Amino acid sequence: MTAASGRFRTPLSRARGLGAAKHGVGHFIAERVSGMVLIPLSIWAAFAGLKLAAGGYAMAVEWLAQPLNAVLLSLFIVAGFTHLRLAIQVVVEDYVYGFVSKSSLLILNYLVCVLGAALGVFAILKVALLGAF
Amino acid sequence: MTEASPGVRERPLSPHLQVWRWHVTMLGSILHRACLVGLYVGALILAGWAVALASGEQAYLAYAGLLGSLPGKLVLLGLTFALFFTIASNVRHMLWDTGRAFTPKVADMITIASIVFAVVATAVVWLIAGQTGGLS
User: Fold this and answer.
1) Is the pLDDT of residue B4 over 50?
2) Residue B96 to chain A, least CA–CA distance (Å)
């Protein structure tokens, strides 16, 4: 199929980026799988939030020092930012038309999500491994 | 390439909001996107929470105070709804991905169900928060 459709495409049409980029399926699957993983994690996180909202600093540190909580919260943050990066990428691609503004926003989206996830996970590890100080 | 050659041809755009009659699956679609944009901020708030916790008691209490203020609570209330609606929407889309539930009646029904689920789940979580002292 690729060979047949490729025969009718000129190098110029490919260079201009017209037609499918063949990246759609990977994006779709990553978005769906991260979305599925996030369903139980989100429900867990909502109840964790309830518990944490009722307690103070010491309680939060103690809570995060438990391996299961630290790991699940890290996974929630990583899966969440993965899902959100893919989702917001589509929103930008749909509503922002200019090449420079679109590219800038896509790169910004990527960087914000990587930074947010890295900061979150590092902070969790710090509390989990070193505790309060 | 000569000067006469055309530039990039105008790409087709999807029909925009004004063209369509309002319907509930449209609301579901728009809400889904709006909720994801909201959750983007929510994910950053969560990462900020972890950083505040790792920065010590003072930073944590200041951050918790900010979240516990009235504007903070309103944001968290919105985020609770966004979280549950996105969960429901993901399930709804998984169902659609299997090729089922595409008749207008069923599609409308599961979209309304998603909204109702999100409202009820949000109410339940905030009622529990009120009971367990999470709101004070």
Assistant:
1) no
2) 12
Nearest alpha-carbon partner for A110 in A73, A81, A76, A78: A81
Q: What is the ipTM of this complex?
A: 0.87
Cα separation, A58 vs A50, whole angstroms? 16
**How many domains does chain A fold into?**
1
Task: Please give the CATH architecture assigned to the domain spanning B23-131.
Answer: Up-down Bundle (1.20)
| Distance, CA of B47 to CA of A88 (rounded, Å) | 18
Answer yes or no: is pLDDT of A2 > 70: no
- Global pTM value: 0.87
CB contact under 8 A, A53 and B129: yes
Delimit the domains of chain B by residue range.
23-131
- pLDDT-based confidence at B2, cuts 50/70/90? very low
Cβ-based contacts of B53 with chain A (< 8 Å): 57, 60-61, 64, 123, 127
Q: Is residue A35 part of a domain?
A: yes
Q: Is the pLDDT of residue B1 over 60?
A: no
CA distance B71 to B76: 9
User: For residue A73, what is the domain's CATH number?
Assistant: 1.20.1300.10
Q: Determine, yes or no, domain membership for A8.
A: no
